[in-house]
Amino acid sequence: MKYLWLYIIAIVTSLGGLLSGYDTGVISGALLFINESWNLSDSLQGMLVSSVLIGAVIGAATNGILADIFGRKKIIIMTALIFIFGSIACAFAPNIIVLIISRLCVGFAVGIVNFVVPLYLSEISPKQMRGTLVSLYQWAITAGILFSYFINAVFAKSVYNWRWMLFAGVVPGVILFIGMLFMKDTPRWLVSKNRYDEAKEVFKKLEPNKNADEAVKEVEQTIKSGENKDGKFVFEKWMIMPFVVGIGIMFAQICTGINTIIYYAPTIFKSAGFDSNITAIYATAGIGIINFLMTIVAIYFTDRLGRKPLLYFGLTGVMLSLFAIGCSFQFADALGDNQKWVAVGSLVTYIICFAVSLGPVGWILISEVFPLKIRGISMSICTVSNFAFNFFVVASFPVLLNRIGGAYTFWIFGIVSILCLVFVYFFVPETKGISLETIENNWINGIKPRKF
């Protein structure tokens, strides 16, 4: 019960992840009915779907420094308002141009929450619970995707069906906005702005058994160690490694193929031998459910086993699954009707391994490895790289599938997974049970990632 307030904060804040997942997933069902209303060309459909991704890059790129200046709480409140406004604008869009602009606005909010919510959760969490609480964000994203499937099904036969689908995002947006009004900003950001009394008050609520004065002093000392004699922050050589880790783990999260599975699962299932569109879609929904459930497993284990053991397990499973999927295409004639079941089994295994490792651990790590003074802008840079990798992989996948075939396409992703395993071994530090201040001091003192 002593951490009840902490869990309430984490759940409310994680609604940002639910909104991100919802607004990413809802367009898949809404697009069918939007196309009936306006008979869109292929290019307009592409613009409508990709507008969220474009907005997300802009949102992530432009708001990191604002989170460092104005605080994490205010940025989350602003983002909730953008989600609400964007959802209403989408629902009442009189034409496709207004709808695309409205989806661009929603995407702007998606880009912001993808860095500011994990940042907020990381900075309010006790070191022994940080992995669990930050993992809630990834779980909320998977919940949002499932919620979008459910809403699409509920309103599919309604009048103004797609408008209701897009409008439904207002509900979690309002809850997030109201909930955040009652929250405090993170104690670490408050210390960075010399608001020590407020920081102590927040520390007392978050960690009742911890000495608030000592906690504030530790944060203050860490901040000063990154400043020059005039009290100004100075970018130093040791800060390069956190960026290597942050951008590298975003590469591993995306370039091992997760969004080819999420976005193109029906296409993969059809290519592997499923004749019916409905059957392929049902199989895809099953993938979404497994992703949601297995992220719960990750929440349980991140602070028990650690980040690197989960990454070793997950990347190994992802690698083997990708090679198995490739083999199902390469040896389709020999496998016959069994090909589709090999493909299904491999995809399910892939999702299980990803959901308990790269999915949540990627966001945990980028919320931990950066120095406090530039944590906001640093996480926004990593989030931009995430969306950039996402765009490259998703755009290139259908081209690879058509030109070199499913086997070689998935084998390429498998080889990338091997390289990512090597990267994790040599460059990613184990941050389980280590305070954010200790992690920063380890970088400052030149401690190698393998010896954290």
Question: Which tags fit this structure?
Answer:
globular; mainly alpha; 452 residues; 22 helices; Growth Hormone, Chain: A; 2 domains; single chain
Percent helix range: over 70%
According to CATH, what is the topology of the largest domain?
A: Growth Hormone, Chain: A
The total beta strand count reads 0
Name the structural class: mainly alpha
Report the sheet with the most strands, covering strand number, pairing sense and barrel closure.
none
Count of spatially separate domains: 2
Gross CATH architecture of the largest domain: Up-down Bundle
The N- to C-terminal Cα distance equals 32 Å
Explain how this protein is built:
It is built from 22 helices and no strands. It has helices spanning 4-13, 15-25, 27-38, 42-70, 72-91, 96-124, 130-155, 161-167, 170-181, 187-192, 196-206, 212-225, 240-255, 258-271, 277-301, 307-330, 332-335, 339-355, 358-366, 375-403, 405-427, 436-444. 51% of the residues are buried. The mean pLDDT is 88.
Structure summarized in a few sentences:
The chain is mostly helical and about 450 residues long. It contains 22 helices and no strands. It folds into two domains: about 1-185, MFS general substrate transporter like domains (Growth Hormone, Chain: A), CATH 1.20.1250; about 235-450, MFS general substrate transporter like domains (Growth Hormone, Chain: A), CATH 1.20.1250.20.
